[in-house]
Amino acid sequence: MLSQASQLLTNDHAALDNVLSQLWTAMDSGDVARSHAQLDLFWARLAVHIRAEHLHLFPTILGRLTSNSADPECSPTFSDAEAGIEQLRADHDFFMHELAQAIGSLRDLKATEPHAIVDGIRRVRDTVLEIEKRLIVHNEIEENQVYCWVRTILNAPDQADLATRINAELANRPPRFSETIWSNR
Ligand SMILES: [Fe+2]
Ligand SMILES: [Fe+2]
Question: Which ligand has the minimum distance to the alpha carbon of residue 12?
Fold first, then answer.
């Protein structure tokens, strides 16, 4: 069973999958404006998720392993955790960089001649496919390893504190999105 903090992040993975599938639907329709809006939402939601992991999850895990590695049977070593988290951070950098490029491409396409739109969307689809493939592996690693460490490394009050901070961070919606659009309802 996952800690509350890890459950929040796992639920957010599912919500992100949902936004991503709506992005595919928008791109399938060939509607550039709709694709741009949906990609902007996916980018922003993934950025908020990543921020919660960077600001709260990763430092809390590494900080606790530094100061208290008393339970080696069910906790990773500090160096194993550090190496694993380093890879996850590299994935995050890849997602943000590629999504920024894709957003720029779709923005340019809005002002493009219709005959160039098919090729432009195809290139963005290739980028989103690469992101999706890497995100599937990334989320599996988080859900099967890093998120499980929260329970084995932190005591109950620290788990509750982490859940509160992650919950607040995930609710930190950029003002350009309405609550309805952000919650994907
Ligand atoms: Fe992540
Ligand atoms: Fe995640």
Answer: 2
Output the CA 62–ligand 2 centroid distance in Å: 16
Whole-number Å distance between alpha carbons of 159 and 162: 5
pTM: 0.93
Tell me the per-residue pLDDT of 58-79, one tens digit each, with 9 for 90 and over.
Answer: 999 999 987 555 555 567 999 9
Q: Render the chain in DSSP notation, one character per residue.
A: ---HHHHHHHHHHHHHHHHHHHHHHHHHHT-HHHHHHHHHHHHHHHHHHHHHIIIIIHHHHHHHHHH----TTTS--HHHHHHHHHHHHHHHHHHHHHHHHHHHHHHHHTTS-HHHHHHHHHHHHHHHHHHHHHHHHHHHHIIIIIHHHHHHHS-HHHHHHHHHHHHHHHT---TTS-HHHHTT-
Distance from Cα 114 to the centre of ligand 1, integer Å: 37
Kindly give the distance from the C-alpha atom of residue 35 to the centroid of ligand 1, in angstroms, as a whole number.
24
Residues of the chain with pLDDT under 50: none
The alpha carbon of 96 and the centre of ligand 1 are apart by a number of angstroms equal to: 11
